Amino acid sequence: MIAFNDLQIIFFTHLNSIKMKYLFTIAMPALLLIGFVSFQSNFNGTPDPNAPTPPQEVSKFVVPDNVKAILDNSCLPCHGADGKFKAKIKWNYEKTAGMKTSKIVGKLSKIVTKLEKGKMPPDKFQTNNPDRKLTDTDKKVIIDWARGLAKELSK
Question: By CB atoms within 10 Å of each CB, which of 80, 122, 127, 139 scores lowest?
C-alpha cells in the first residue's frame, strides 16, 4: 500500500516535471522573444546621449608656405610619400587631414625631438645633398611650427 506521504512525493515530483516542461517549452521562448525585442528597440537609430564621443578628427591640417618650402626641400625627399631616399617614417600631407589628433601630435613631437637633438637630416644625407641642409633658422621655423600646432591641436 502507498502511504499518503508517498502520494505527496509522487504528486509533487510529477508537478515539478510539468512545471519544468512548461518552463522550457513556453516560458523560456517567450522570455527570449521579449529580450530580443527589447534589445532591438535599443537600436532605433537615435544616438545615445551618454555614449562616449569618438576621437576628434583634424578637419583641416594647414602647413604655412614657409614651413612647407623647408619641408619640401630638406625633409620630404626622404620622408615624403614618394620620397626617393630611405626613411623610417613617411609623411603625406593629404592623409594627415584624416588622422586622429593624437597621432598628428605624436608625429609633431617626434619632429621637434629629432631636430632638437640634431638627428635630422642625417649627416650622410647633408654631405651628399648640401643644398638640402637645414640651417639653424630653418630648424627653428619647423620646431616653432610643430610645437605651436601640437599645442593648438591638444586643446
Answer: 127
